[in-house]
Amino acid sequence: MRTKILISLLIVLTILTGSVFLLKKKVLAKPRISHSDAIGKYKPKVEAVLKSFCRKQDLSYPPKHLYLVGLKAEKELRVYAVDKNISDDDSEESTSSRPKLIHTYNIMAASGEAGPKLKEGDWQVLEGFYKIDSFNPNSLYHLSLRVNYPNQEDKTHAENENRTKLGGDIMIHGSNASVGCLAMGDDAIEEIYVLVSDVGRENVDVILAPCNLAKAKPKIKMDQQPKWLSTLYKRLTEALSELG
Question: In terms of CATH, what superfamily is 33-243?
């Protein structure tokens, strides 16, 4: 049984290595472009679609704030938008300040299972609250958005547990293959990339969860997980419940 598993893993690694090699050849063969060049190229293609997403929810474009919600079990990336900046001071909650679901993308590929990413090479997709810290218009996977893993919370947990080599370079990207990232497909990432750029990456929150915790329990053995995970799942549940 163990031999069969090892053989299967070797096959997967071989396929992934070959795919990355071909992608590198493809990327190296094309000229590098800037972020503004990428926006100039893809925005005319996707802007009408993005505006229609917002218009259907009576939101202006671009919205003031975004929530990118990745649900691992459902293999969905849900996009919620807010017309009013969440930092605006308002004595009463207005309809425009409530996040509205404007679109749901299918996640084409994501490795791992329920549970947080703890170390380099564990193939786990992140779980927690993150930000977008950079754009990559020259990605091996068409276009990509870099998530700020490890964030301070990840670093604190790792320090308390004497963990090192946490890994990094976690992306939301195009194509249909991934190890530890979210592969969205090329058409979808063009829309997401332009949308995040138009809104401003500082106005985007990324929420990644094992499943929609507001409606289901994760398929995970909590007694085999870090003690802090139950608290994180409670926070994620609250956040997902507020989004609806």
Answer: L,D-transpeptidase catalytic domain-like (2.40.440.10)
